[in-house]
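Page 42, continued from yesterday. The earlier attempt failed because a stray header line got pasted into the input along with the sequence. Redoing it now with the clean sequence only.
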Amino acid sequence: MQRSAFYYTFGMEPFHPLAADADVPLEELALAQAECALALGRLDGLLAGLTPPEKQLFGMSLVREVLFAALGQSGFADAALLFDAWFAGLDRAPQETPLTPCSAYAVVRALLGELVHHSWAPLAEAAHTIAAAARFGADRPAQAEDALAGEAIAKATALVTQVATGDTPLPFAGLARLTVLLGQEALFAPVERGARSFSVAGREVAIEQPAPRTPLWAVDLALGALLSSGGAWRHALPCPGAITAEALQPPLRPYQRAMVTTRTVQASALRLGELVADARKRAALIHDQLGHLRANARAPQVWMHLAAFAPLGLDQMAAAFKVSRRGTYAIGDALVAAGLARRETVQGRVLLVAEDPRRARRSEPRGDAPALAHPALVAFDSAMAEVDRLLARSSGQV
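This time it went through. Structure tokens are written below.
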């Protein structure tokens, strides 16, 4: 760990943009915390009113949000661009750099390994389906870096448990204690920027380099335990992006640190609220288009994955939803015929991608009313229902 040559030359401590002669006024912090508490409470209320399909969609979206936030926080700048193809096993993993402490494989493995055991059933079920469909790193055995990701989750869970006393329904005292502990923990504390020296025209030049990332995504994963310990949340959900390196910088004064953490936790809650709104819109679309099908029909479940998480290949669909190869063709044909999906060929492999029929409906002339129940979906669901009945009979079920 090194400080830049500039600071050593002039005998100064590194300047932080939030460093100031005076701390944040208490009234300003109290207002920010009230706004954050309101966002947390609203999200908890929204989650309590979700229907089963909305919960499934939200769970899928939340897993994607957790993975994206963790990969971004770990320094994988190209994760968003590559993710869908990587998930399908069609492209490389996000590029590792000197800023990334462990590979993208290790991050997603660790996160999915934890989420499949989550206490909130819709999230655990979504993670289980996604893990079954995942093709990233399928042929890459576990390596030493996987242990680093696991250690980060274990350490983050221990620190959150230490501060999650439940003494008050508001989490801000616990968040303040947590940021202090994180700043003292070598695994999570911000690493100072380094300096790289090289010669140019016979003169030594020092260039400051970005600091390596620490695995704060593991703290985001465990933070829900703190929010639920006092009753702010019913469920200990992950909080993507809630804990940042900025909040752990040593120059910050106590109220400044609390202000940064309060704002990032609020932003995380607001983002999850957006996922809830998206889940409701998608659930309404499912009800309009597929409401005539059985509650356990495969076609709606497949479409929820496509819409809320990522496209699927046929082998992924078969593994995640326990259907035969022929069944995957039938599901794809039915969804495409109903305008809910399209097929794309990527590197010689067919992927099923979600479509929103509302877009096509908006482009149609007024007076045209597309059928909500496509015959292909009805026929396929009837066939699957008959298969389920035969399987139940053969296993001795009524």
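Notes: The chain has two domains: 25-280, 290-394.
Reminder to self: strip header lines before submitting.
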